[in-house]
Amino acid sequence: MISPNDRPPQVFDRPLLRERQRRAERSGAEKFLLERVAEDASDRLHAVLREFSCAVDLGSPAGALSAQALAVKSLQHFVFPDDDREALALAAEAFDLSISMLALQFVNDLPGVLAQIRRALKPDGYFLAATVGGDTLTELRQAFAAAEVEIEGGLSPRVIPMLDLRDAGALLQRAGFALPVTDVDRVIVRYDNMFGLTRDLRRMGATNILVDRRRTPLRRATLLKAAEVYARKFSDDDGRVRATFDIVWMAGWAPHESQPKPLQPGSAKMSLEQAVKGKAK
After folding, report:
1. What is the CATH classification number for the domain harbouring 254?
2. CA distance 104 to 110
3. 210 in a domain, yes or no?
4. Cα 143 from Cα 230, distance rounded (Å)
């Protein structure tokens, strides 16, 4: 029997996420961000200069990735489970490539999921993922925070926790990936007003799915105040407002004896002091 203590904290309401993503697909999903990420993923994989035979796509929105676009022989699509433990039904050392686009930001136990992905890779298998993080939607967060404090006297959880670059690298190392690499692609999108942004977020299926979200309807006065703060603080000279999306890229390899190894402490043939003096001559 699984003890409740074995379950990670539940930050996201994943069944609600699935429902909103399906609704977005039915009404015409907004895919500009996903298309950018998918194209970037293809470019990054081509730059690896290696042929992958058996790949798994972990949780990417439907239709985002194809074997042809990624130049892989076989691509299996895997949907993250909604169970509390987020146990991935992936066999050990089954794939030589694991890829995930704009999905990992919605898992409750990211360290545990990364460890499972690592186990599913063959030795010298490659992992590549893109997730929203950093300062994503910082303008919207600030506008709603100011509006709620002024109108309602307090804050309510609205925007998901954001993964920063340093934490992404540490998580890859913790999961056992070798040669971890992380970077950020910042995308600035402009809208006529805040309501254009919120419409796009609904069409992405990316509205509030936090377990601790407020369950009562948003006050109209709070919404209008947030739009006023947004326009005042984050508009350009032409009156349009900015929205930030930071795409955090994570990459790493399953360990293999052929990979470069760091030097052992004390194995250097020249001290740092000698090297600096040599360059100064």
Report:
1. 3.40.50.150
2. 7
3. no
4. 5
**Residue 274 Cα distances to 264, 265, 266, 279, angstroms:** 19, 17, 14, 9
Amino acid at 199: R
In a domain, 233, yes or no: no
> How many domains is the chain built from?
1
Domain residues for the domain of 48 are 4-135+162-190+245-271
DSSP letter at 12?
B
- CA 266 from chain center: how many Å? 38
Q: Is residue 66 part of a domain?
A: yes
Helix (H) or strand (E) holding 126: strand 121-133
Asked if 244 and 137 touch (Cβ cutoff 8 Å), the reply is: yes
Per-residue pLDDT of the chain (281 residues; tens, 9 = 90+): 344 456 667 776 777 777 777 777 777 777 888 899 999 999 999 898 888 989 999 888 876 788 878 888 888 988 776 665 677 888 999 999 999 998 888 888 888 899 999 999 999 999 999 999 999 999 999 998 999 899 887 767 666 778 888 899 999 999 999 999 999 999 999 999 999 999 898 888 777 666 666 667 778 999 999 999 999 999 999 999 999 999 999 999 999 887 777 655 555 555 555 555 555 55
The per-type count for the chain, helices as H runs and strands as E runs, is: 9, 6
**How many other β-carbons are positioned within 10 Å of the β-carbon of residue 38?**
23
